[in-house]
Design a protein that fits this description.
There is one protein chain. This protein is an alpha+beta fold. The chain is 24% helix and 25% strand. It contains 13 helices and 21 strands. The chain has an 8-stranded antiparallel beta sheet. Strands 5-6-10-8-9 form a 5-stranded antiparallel beta sheet. A 4-stranded mixed beta sheet has the order 1-2-4-3, with helices on one face. The protein is globular. The two termini are 27 Å apart.
Length: 444
């Protein structure tokens, strides 16, 4: 079946033939039938740009790779098929008093896709990215071979090329990862409003080792922010009425849906200034030890179905970069560059240790993610200037979010790309696995 595919940003759609394999055998058969435009695995389609598209080729919809989820309470490990969503994994783990070691800003991501993007969360400064917690995975390469990989003994080079490898080394079938113990389905949260970017950075700086921390940043108003920091709530932290069943109440599902694509021009400086003003002042100036359901703290936008439609028919570009510690002045310059751009979603987090994955995005420092209307006049020039600042500072862009960077810029940001290519060529010498992102950025 030929389907028009796009990323979460609703930009640059391309058509591909889509199949939905249900097991490893069907994956191998599908890869064997890939035509001259190659093949690519795809999960739930939450990459913003063209990472999960293969124009004119074959796309394997891996959401059919589901089945039993196995939790080992003695080891604190969970094994799940790659098509399992993180939301389903969380629902399976909570009754056992366990939680994912890393969860990104949405739970609507498959386990395979999360590993392929080496996702990070609000706890990267403490716990690194998801790849650091994967104990093993099963990979099908284009020749139909099954590889059982781990980070130390079973072809660690291919393991780390797959973590963050954007689906270009093979199709992940299942994975085993560590979990963390929790007493409840809630988070104990501290909230602070700040008036400028420097104050925000102080609250997130090394030395403030809350397990989870994030700042919503108002780039239209000097980088003022709402900073939330959290720890998993213990039973004694909960209101008395919730202590009898503390592992219930992770939060509501989708409570509101954007039914139609918003009209062009809805996101402008005036509407976003009004929204940001209301959001900022609705937050408490200083609040301590509030208990929030897990989904409220980790996945607030998941409560709004199809919220990406709000950006209008042209869609959205997310710009996400990471800058090393010590490059706070560069962060100031980038936020100043973006200060005239209408956006309601500006997120700032501190990052910690990296994994050995050559194409993994996170590194110690600061990451800023901003959603921008794709049809904004001059957006390309503006973001290219930001790219130059990031590159000069020794930072990089996130491949899972990118939809417009230049190949040469990305190559300079990822100095281990050549090593990653050598591993990929070993397992895919005919170049079967390919994506629109890989073509655009000349990754292969």
């Amino acid at each position: 079946m030929t389907v028009l595919l796009h990323g979460w940003g609703n930009t640059a759609p391309s058509a591909a033939h889509v199949v939905r394999p249900r097991d490893a055998e069907e994956v191998a058969a599908s890869l064997a039938d890939a035509g001259p435009r190659g093949a690519l695995p795809r999960g739930l389609g939450r990459s913003y740009g063209d990472a999960a598209q293969d124009a004119g080729g074959l796309v394997l919809d891996c959401t059919g790779l589901t089945g039993a989820v196995r939790f080992d309470p003695l080891r604190g490990e969970v094994t799940a098929p790659a098509g399992t969503s993180l939301g389903d994994l969380i629902a399976h783990l909570l009754p056992h008093g366990a939680f994912l070691p890393v969860t990104p800003g949405t739970q609507h991501v498959t386990l395979g896709g999360a590993i392929a993007a080496d996702v990070h969360g609000k706890n990267h400064h403490v716990d690194s990215s998801l790849g650091a917690h994967v104990r093993s995975l099963t990979l099908i390469t284009p020749d139909g071979s099954t590889h059982r990989l781990d980070p130390e003994h079973e072809d660690p080079e291919l393991f780390w090329a797959t973590v963050g490898g954007m689906g270009l080394t093979g199709v992940i079938i299942d994975a085993t990862l560590t979990t963390i113990p929790v007493e409840s389905a809630h988070v104990r949260v501290d909230t602070d409003r700040t008036t400028d970017l420097d104050t925000t950075l102080e609250l997130l700086a090394p030395g403030s080792e809350d397990r989870y921390s994030v700042a919503w940043v108002d780039l239209l108003h000097r980088g003022r922010a709402v900073v939330t920091r959290g720890e998993h709530a213990r039973v004694r932290d909960l209101p008395v009425a919730r202590r009898g069943d503390p592992l219930r109440g992770a939060g509501p599902g989708t409570t509101l849906t954007v039914p139609l694509t918003a009209p062009r021009g809805l996101f402008n400086r005036w509407t976003m200034t009004a929204f940001n003003h209301a959001y900022y002042h609705r937050a408490p100036k200083r609040r301590r030890d509030e208990t929030q359901p897990l989904s409220t703290f980790f996945h607030p936008l998941d409560a709004v179905g199809n919220w990406n439609r709000a950006y209008g028919p042209a869609g959205a570009v997310q710009y996400q970069c990471v800058l090393p510690l010590g490059e706070e002045e560069t962060l100031h310059r980038i936020t100043a560059d973006l200060s005239g751009v209408p956006t309601f979603l500006g997120v700032l987090k501190r990052m910690g240790r990296s994994t050995p994955a050559p194409l993994s995005f996170p590194r110690p420092g600061w990451t800023l993610a901003v959603d921008l209307p794709a049809d904004l006049p001059g957006l390309g020039r503006l973001l290219t200037r930001c790219d130059e600042r990031v590159l000069e500072a020794g930072g990089r862009l996130y491949l899972a979010k990118d939809s417009r960077a230049a190949a040469g810029t990305v190559h300079a940001m990822y100095p281990d790309l050549r090593a990653w290519r050598r591993v990929r060529e070993r397992v895919d010498p005919k170049g079967v696995l390919v994506s629109d992102l890989a073509r655009r950025l000349e990754l292969l």
